[in-house]
Amino acid sequence: MLIDKGYTKVRPLAGGLDGWIDAGFPVQDVA
Amino acid sequence: MTLDQLPEGIGIAGSGPAYHGNVGRRLHRRNLRLDGGGLVSRRASPSHYHSRVHSLVHYVLVYGVSLIFINVLLEQLGAPVPAVPALIVAGALSRDGKMSSTNILLAAIAASLIADYMWFLLGRRYGYRILRTLCRISLSPDSCVRDTEARFERWGLKSLLIAKFIPGFSTVAPPLAGASGRGTLAFVIYDGIGALIWAGAAVAAGRAFHRAIDRLLAALENLGGWALVVIGCLLAVLIAVKWAQRIHFLRQLRLARIEPRELKAMLDRGEFPVVIDVRTPGARKHNPRAIPNAILVHMDDVATQLGDVAPHTEVVLYCT
């Protein structure tokens, strides 16, 4: 969808949010 | 159907108690005889039967319900063993009075409920992580966690009524119901009705097209032992094609993905890509954390939200 809009550098994050958290990187509370 | 449940007067043709061991002796006790390749009664002439049941179908008749149960159980547990063809054949045999459609449906529903309830409990215990595991083993690469989440949030437990008709969603919906904290009783009711609709449709299709299926079975029977080889080869080709599609899909995805450490390094270097959290509201409620400065937006609104962002900007999307 984004690529169709002309965005050329669109990448999904491997492992999603779980992968980010498992890697020990910081998160913020969005509740 | 077990052997003891075979209708009185129906037996296995082409064999006898002398060389068929327990099966033959059990048939003999039930006043059944085995003649020249068809299922016949010792009291009835073969001409009473419009179609003879061939040896290939014997085991389906004798162990049919157990086979249906195992087939559906394996499929619902996630194994790439399609159960619909077996249900259709069983439906055709039930139309001919050779199997009980009630027993077929009960076996399919029971197997489905057992497998789905196991996934439901795993979803309840391990939450959304179990979905990621499921997507990894699934042979349907087009279904991702986010899509199934969105579908489930839109329809709720009602989605279980049609889940088994949607490739990929069938196995993912039960753990999703568990992960989203749905009640056990409601889950069992909706899932049971869904299993009934799904298995009932396949059995009904088999009953409707029983003549064509009988002809197919007869053709397979003519192939003799090669029939099993043909069926096995077709199944192997089906799995191989799906597996190849999945490998290709994963390879493409791997090339396009950004690793967490790479994103962290970009942020640390002061390069600020646009990070977008495209999780569903339910997933955010389940895990109310996000990558710092990420934009929380629904997938359908992403393009609108990025209206002012230059096209050459690095965009990173993530879900659960």
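Residues 1-53 of chain B form one domain.
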